[in-house]
Specification:
This protein is an alpha+beta fold and 117 residues long. It has a single domain, classed as Alpha-Beta Plaits (2-Layer Sandwich), CATH 3.30.70. It has a 4-stranded antiparallel beta sheet with strand order 2-3-1-4.
Length: 117
């Protein structure tokens, strides 16, 4: 029972994070989820694998296209997500800095490239 309750609470917290519920209104785009892991990794290497989470809204494909166009060569696309508003790929330092300020970007997080399906 305790395991099931813990799993449910974790799922609820994860869903709230994905919706951006914990993001205060005063923060700038992309600020709420800045990953210190991404920042540290980019200090040591020219590019890293990330997931760029986009803000919720209409036409997620158009927002993906806009972000990808604005990041240009500083982001190498690996995967477009259809069920969540985001893209995965490799980002450079310059791309990371631009993504953090992009109006459509909610979060840039380190992609541990797990075994998800």
């Amino acid at each position: 029972m305790l395991v099931r309750l813990t799993a449910c609470l974790f799922a609820l917290a994860l869903a709230a994070c994905a919706r951006g519920d914990s993001t205060p209104a005063a923060q700038t785009p992309g600020e709420a989820c800045r990953s210190s892991d991404v920042h540290r990794a980019l200090q040591a290497q020219a590019s890293v694998a990330v997931i760029v989470m986009l803000k919720d809204g209409d036409d997620p494909r158009a927002r993906q296209d806009r972000v990808l166009g604005d990041l240009g060569a500083d982001f190498q696309l690996e995967r477009r997500y259809e069920s969540i508003p985001g893209v995965a790929g490799t980002i450079t330092r310059a791309g990371y800095a631009r993504a953090q300020q992009h109006a459509d970007v909610r979060c840039v997080q380190f992609d541990g490239t797990g075994g998800g399906a």
